[in-house]
Design goal:
two-stranded antiparallel ribbon; Prok_Ku; DNA damage; single chain; Ku70, Chain: A, Domain 2; alpha+beta; 10 strands; 269 residues; eight-stranded mixed beta sheet; SPOC-like_C_dom_sf
Length: 269
């Protein structure tokens, strides 16, 4: 996958040290198969339009504004110029406000990763000083940044020669795990633990990115559609029922583990 152009440019600032930086998303779904909504009768693409919820008439682009609902059917109109004037420095400057140990920010607070890199040769030294100092202290930087007119908390983590910037979830967006896990009281019986460890060891190997099977099937479907040019494609066969033979939910765990280990030994011959 080729590198994409940065969609944000600004400055990284720590006290009096400032350097120009560029930000790009670390993940992408642009390669995913996407469908348009079509008119089956005409074969034309369906276009969506904004209409007035009361009159039903289409609203021109210049008349579309943002509104905050303060009561049922009662809105405060907010103009684009007013929104632009709100989030000041964090629009173009990532100013590191504090540092914290990396392990103090748990996985659930991390939202989306981005790659942060120097935006010119002159600023590389300042960028490297900030990056290496964080790495040597094993800390991450916490700051703020505006994404799509919304200010987000962000975490800066040194990685290789660059910095990974994570957007962070706010406190009211995270559900506590204790609410879900505290009721689990089961403890494995004596002989199950060692057997499970053996099974895990048998199936342990280096991780590689997982391929999306649905994506591959979609591409195959589209290729078939191209060949037939609108003719109904014959399905390769009925899908297997994943639940076949699983009428009894009560499983003998010890027997299942032993069988799994035995099958692993036979395949290894």
């Amino acid at each position: 996958m080729a590198a994409v152009k940065p969609y944000w440019k600004g400055y990284l600032k720590l006290s009096l040290v400032t350097c120009p930086v560029a930000l790009s998303p670390a993940t992408s779904d642009t390669e995913k198969v996407r469908f348009h909504t079509m008119n089956r009768a005409t074969g034309n693409r369906v276009a969506s339009r904004y209409v007035d919820s009361v009159t039903g008439k289409e609203v021109n682009t210049e008349d579309q504004v943002k509104g905050y609902e303060r009561g049922e059917g009662d809105y405060i109109i907010v103009e684009e110029e007013e929104l632009d004037a709100v989030a000041l420095e964090s629009v173009r400057t990532i100013e590191i406000e504090l540092f914290t140990p990396r392990d103090s920010v748990e996985w659930i607070w991390l939202e989306k990763p981005h790659y942060l890199v120097p935006n010119d040769k002159v600023g590389e030294d300042a960028f490297a000083v900030i990056r290496d100092a964080m790495r040597s202290e094993n800390v991450v930087g916490i700051s703020r940044l505006v994404f799509g007119q919304r200010e987000r908390a962000v975490m800066l983590e040194p990685r290789d020669e660059g910095i990974v910037l994570w957007t962070l979830r706010y406190g009211d967006e995270v559900r506590l795990e204790e609410e879900y896990f505290s009721g689990i009281k089961a403890k494995p019986e004596g002989g199950l633990g060692p057997l499970m460890k053996q099974l895990i060891q048998k199936q342990t190997k280096k991780w590689s990115p997982v391929v999306d099977p649905i994506q591959d099937r979609m591409l195959e479907l589209i290729a078939e559609k191209k060949k037939t040019m609108g003719k109904t494609a014959k399905r390769a066969g009925a899908k297997k029922d994943a639940a076949a033979g699983a009428s009894n939910n009560v499983v003998d765990i010890m027997a299942a583990l032993k069988k799994s280990l035995e099958e692993g030994k036979q395949r290894g011959r």
